[in-house]
Amino acid sequence: MTANKFDCRGNPVSNATQAAVEGLDRAIDKLRLYQADPLFEVDAVLADHPDLAMGHAFRAGLLATTADKAFEPELAKSVAAAEALMPGANERERGHIQAVGAWLSGDVEAATEHWGRTAMAYPRDLTAVQLAQVTDFFLGYSTMLRDRVARVLPHWDTSVPGYGSILGMHAFGLEEAGDYAQAEAAGRECVERDPRDAWGVHAVAHVMEMQGRAHEGIDWLAGTAAAWTGPAGLFSYHNWWHKALFHLDLGETQAALTLFDEQISAGGFGQALELVDGAALLWRIAALGHDVGNRWTLVHDNWAARADDGFYAFNDMHVMMAAAATGDDAMAHRVVAAVRRAAAGSGTNAMMSREVGLPAVLGLAAFGLGEYAAALDLLLPLRGKANRFGGSHAQRDVIAWTATEAAVRLGDRALADALIAERLAAKPQSPLNRLWQSRASGLAVAA
Predict the structure, then answer these.
(1) Which residues cross the membrane (predicted)?
(2) Using CA atoms, how far apart are residues 100 and 106, in angstroms rounded to an integer?
(3) pTM here?
(4) What pLDDT sits at residue 3?
(5) 20 to 30 A Cα–Cα from 10, which one of 65, 274, 310, 321?
């Protein structure tokens, strides 16, 4: 063993052999491309090199960003192993270890800053940049999604392995910050450099979603799918979810349901991130009055096992979708109780639960019961602060989607017209928005 070796981007790795470094590089490349299986790769390295601090820190970061309590025991093991190796770790590795320790303690904001500061000190540390941005996403930090990557861009060029992925990360940040032209250009360059880069594909899809370019979005995802889908594509379900949203915008409900059946549900909904997409799609379709058959069953049953977690408020909102849509009042009460407990606690999720999570789950529960006035009272004030519990603009739109439908069902012409006007301002050609407008036009005007 040597005191330090260097990875393929020039970052120091302590107490490592060349084989260990190369194995860690493979795991990092799998994660940056969202391809299977970075956990398998790092576990193989750690089996031969259990004293590799950066290996344990990477494993912990990977598990943390699943945002799923089901993985917390494994996360705790990795954090403990990394912290035990802290005395012999270098400065970069200590930053990673501090980040995963903060995450495990419930301080997601501190975790983001540890990864962010590590990336500033080691700007070619792709994992630090990626995990910081993912955590910014969980926190709803739209401008930091952009700026976290912009900080390190001057240190990257075509000679650095993974340069395309940095462009893809920047593209997503630019999109969430509202700079659609630059976002699309960076995302397309990312995908040109490596068509497997599902995050870069995703960034361009987000641009098209925000601009109401549904036909282009469908073509973009279909045209790039061969490289990012299939057994190796860990992010496929989410990109297919975006394609389903484009179909919904065009009124092509059956196409969206087919994607649910054939692609989005393909992983069996074993992870929270997959369950979020499954619930979000079915909720949108059902809210528009369409029958989704028995498709809620698998989503509901997997969320039911997490209904008491109160682990991440954004997830809790999607648990409530499954409970409210299926009329499972007992599960709904469990979700509300879990979010109340979380809100009374400490840490980042306590703030999220108080500010957004609790009114969101109560609002969706009210909608499911047909109590549309109550749903609107709870959901409308969230519009300006929903970013506080994370997600993207496209994901958080489910709140406005539900409120718009609630206003139409309630028969409140003035409120429906106002909410639909917002949607039309952003997407004037959207068939879905035009349909809502047509439905609202049939409502009586209050005297």
Answers:
(1) none
(2) 10
(3) 0.97
(4) 66
(5) 65
